Amino acid sequence: MWTLWQLIGFFSLIKMILQLDCQIPPLVNDCNPCYFSPLKSVHWGLLRTVLMMSLSSLFNMQGLWTALAGLVLGMIFVHIQFPYLLQDCKYGWTLFRIKLKRDGFRKRKPFYTVLECFLERVRRQPDKALIIFEGREYSYLYVDRQSNRVARALRTHADLREGDTVAFFMSNDPSYAWLWFGLCKLGCAASLLNYNIRSKSLLHCFSCCGARVLIASEELKAAVEEVLPTLLEQNISVFILSKDCNTPGIETLLDKMEQASDEPISPELRSKVTMVSPAVYVYTSGTTVINHDKLWAITLYLSTCGATSDDVIYSPLPLYHGAGFNLGLHGAIERGMTVILRRKFSASAFWDDCRIHNVTIIQYIGETMRYLCNTPEREIDKTHKVRMAIGNGLREDVWRSFQGRFGHIRIVEFYTASESNIGFMNYTGKMGAVGRENFYQKRLCPYALVQFDAEREEPLRDSNGLCIPTPEGETGLLVSEITSAAPFLGYCGSPEQTEKKQMRNVFQKGDVYLNSGDLLRFDKDNFIYFQDRVGDTFRWKGENVATTEVECVLVALNFIEDACVYGVKIPGTEGKIGMAAVTLKAGREFSCSEAFLHVSKYLPPYAQPQFIRIQSCLETTGTFKQVKSSLVREGFNPSSINDLLYFLMPRDKCYKPMTQIYYNSVIAGELRI
């Protein structure tokens, strides 16, 4: 029999071994070069022998310490050979637990939605702050009662019924939460409109989701009035978050909410909601519908990252953005957390907000982190309680700079898209990576990288018409198999766009994969790196820009014949900024002031072409598809372009001829755009 102290020592040692991956930094990464690299070539037969001898002597008292020494040696060998093994296993186990939880939600009758999760939180912690906004706290119970008022007001004055859709045209505000849950209690869906869009773009996005009602912030009243005649022609009910409004056709909502009861709403009003019922519409490359089942997948990201109810999350991202609304707000509710909401991102106020509210988790997109790093340094930069940052689009150099300046905050970079059926998470903290290949995840949702022809902007195929896998370490197009476990819901109201995203006969005849539109790279250690975006969408300032939409706006100008829009890279920035190559109508000249007024009226700032290049003709393929690859390579350097080139100058409210001085200023970061 073992003595008590031997048992304690044994299990303490086992515990130490299991925690080895957390205590010892990985030996094969950029920051911790492996000084024991020769050990990686140790013959596995020797290791297997050592382990077997250790196990065989475990129950021999005299061989106990020999066994323990052998186990420790074996674990060290495993750690050197597979430095991320324990993290891989832990992440795989986390994914398995999340899957079990989602399966449990699906089996509940009625289906267990995020609303039911919120109501449980209200019962457990009614007085805890759900949202803190501009110095005021809004408790879980307050949000619940306000949502009851919303449901009753809209049911009475807009005749809302289960299955209807309501569009939000709003800036960040706590009312987002109770408006949303009010809709949920009626079994309705919400369409989250970007508050930067105007005119035709606003009407287009609104009509895509089939909404019957529009609710707008008071400060966006003028933008609503611009499209109001069209909305009224379509019998759309228009509400503004105010008690007073003198515009015929626009109803007030706050006064109607005050008159409504805050008593609970009967679940019968939403009895037909299922996991496949539409929950939220967001606008990415197209109009993406997120059903209640997919909403859970996004909501549980915070849980996957290890967030707890004791955390406080800071969310300066716009709530029309999937990351801000679905991951931030819903994820916080699922964990029982408090959200520090800000109307707009402010780099100068960011860390002061975090210190005031004892923030422990922050949300970001790549550009926000760069803006933070560009602020003047302060002695209190590392004085805060932030332990984790969750987001995407963070470049490796900004990552290193951020942690060096603000402390060793755990960065959880992820890769996904609202319409995608695949996502990755960098659970190891590897700088620059968006994730890591994981056996369990790949079994659940098969994916691969395939070779891509940048000139033709299409995947390469072999003599059998099948796609060609990308060799290890090379860049390829990410494709993910569409299955019942990993479905693709498509784009609302656009079957052509939905079909365009699907690739058939990828690895065998009859299979169907989702074309992510993104180029990624897997390295020899199975880390995943985002490389570029292809196709008709690029990303700038955290927003997706649809090139076809910008092209339609440009050709509406009476002096432009045709337009080809694409994104170009600017050193030191995340994403790509918009550029357009255009041809002019016969006998017409480019009007710098008229072009500025036009794009400013019809496009949000992030989608306005920063550079416009005048060409005699636009290059196309044999199938008349525009060729953008050469234009992207040539960029906007006036010294290497013979065409007329213009540069957007918002201060002067016009486009100006691009000079080498302007170009040098942009490249050097002296001229901010």
UniProtKB/TrEMBL annotation:
Catalyses: a long-chain fatty acid + ATP + CoA = a long-chain fatty acyl-CoA + AMP + diphosphate; tetracosanoate + ATP + CoA = tetracosanoyl-CoA + AMP + diphosphate; a very long-chain fatty acid + ATP + CoA = a very long-chain fatty acyl-CoA + AMP + diphosphate
Record InterPro entries: AMP-bd_C (IPR025110), AMP-bd_C_sf (IPR045851), AMP-dep_synth/lig_dom (IPR000873), ANL_N_sf (IPR042099)
Going by the UniProt record, its keywords in alphabetical order are:
Cell membrane, Fatty acid metabolism, Ligase, Lipid metabolism, Lipid transport, Membrane, Nucleotide-binding, Signal, Transmembrane, Transmembrane helix, Transport
Q: Does the keyword Ribosomal protein apply?
A: no
The UniProt entry's GO CC annotations, sorted and at most eight, read: endoplasmic reticulum membrane; plasma membrane
Q: Where in the cell is it found?
A: Cell membrane
Transmembrane domains' residue ranges: 68-86
Extract the GO molecular function terms from the UniProt entry: long-chain fatty acid transmembrane transporter activity; long-chain fatty acid-CoA ligase activity; nucleotide binding
Q: Does the keyword Amino-acid biosynthesis apply?
A: no
Q: Name one GO biological process term.
A: long-chain fatty acid import into cell
Protein name per its UniProtKB record: long-chain-fatty-acid--CoA ligase
Name its species: Denticeps clupeoides (denticle herring)
